[in-house]
Each structure stands twice: as structure tokens, then as C-alpha cells.
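Handoff note, outgoing to incoming analyst
You'll be picking up this chain. Sequence as last confirmed:
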Amino acid sequence: MAKLTKKQKAQQGSVDRERFYGIDEAFGLVKANATAKFDETVEVALNLGVDPRHADQMVRGVVNLPKGTGKTVRVAVFAKGGKADEATAAGADVVGAEDLMETIQGGQIDFDRVIATPDMMGVVGRLGKVLGPKGLMPNPKLGTVTMDVTKAVTDAKSGQVEFRVEKAGIIHAGIGKASFGEDDLKENFRAFCDAIVRAKPAGAKGKFVQKVSVSSSMGPGVKIDLAEVAGA
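Most recent structure output, in case you need it:
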């Protein structure tokens, strides 16, 4: 295990690992410890009382963060004709059909979100082995298979975050940048946690939200008092 630098030791020392913090103090600590030379992403992690190997305990969805993510999201759209023009007008970075499929099959994937009109899913389906493992496969439940490509592209560009529980029952996502004000980070945090609570699956038994922590990309994790998370 790599030795901690002096700066990392100081950061670790500023956070009590055994304590659960209120969100005001927690985000103050996260911002104070975001001292890298780049604008660190502020991340939230939730440990949930689910086993995602069971279909009725899967937690997945999307949430629009009110203050955006601070990240430039590149969007690819599978569409033809008027819908392709609509996607381009909405600000999609890449628009195509079979030609886009061939580009992706050739290993060129320089986008963060894929949207498709329903009639294009026959083409997109051939990319399942490429897009699936990267979490890029369009999905009607997430609003990424739709005829309303304008809304889908706008949502993706303006701060929409997809979430999906991992094998260990953990969900994590970026909810902003260290340069954001504390109030904006807290607003995004509440919106994200509310969306997770609303997505509680029917098969979840016992306590759903078991642990929540926040951190910056390079900073130490700060545990959040669950009393601060509505519905937890």
C-alpha cells in the first residue's frame, strides 16, 4: 500500500472517521480538502440494503441535478431524417445510424451518453457487447430510447445523472465540482439522495439506506448523519 503524503495525512486528520457529520459541516470539509491542481469532482456513495443479483432488488434510474454536474457531457444519438436534424439542433455531439454503429464497432467511443429513437434499436442492439459493459446502452426506462430526442439531449447536457447499484449494494456518482458553492452541492446532494429513496425496489427488506458518504476525487470520505437524508 502506498504511503500517504504529508498533505494526505493532514487531510485524513481533518476528518473523524468514526463520526457522522451534518451536511453543512460535511460539505465544508469536502471543499476544504479538495486541494488538487484540478477542479475535483464531488462524489456521493450510498450503501443500500439490497442484493442486486435479485431482479426485484435492482436500483436504477436517472436524476436531474438542479445545479448541474459541472461536467461537459458528450452525447451520441442514433436517429435518421428529421429526428437526426432535431438531435443536432439540440446540441448532440455525434448523430448517425449505421455509420455511427460502424464507428463504434471500430473502437471509437468518445461520448458519455447514447440516445436512440425506437426505430434505431435494431441497429443499436448489435452494439450490446460494446455499449453494455460501459453502461452506455440506451434504455426506455432511463429516457434514452425516445422519440423526444430534443428533451433527451437537453437533459443529458444539463446535469442529468444515471445511477445503478453495483454488486456490493453501493451506488456512487459525481454530484458537482469542488468549485461549486456549498449550497449548490447540498442541493444536488439532496436531489440525488431523494431520487435513490424514491427508486427503492419492492424486494428491498429492512433498512434501505445504510450508509452515506461524500468526498472529492482526491480527498478523504466524510460520513453523513442519516438523519440528514430524507426517507433514509
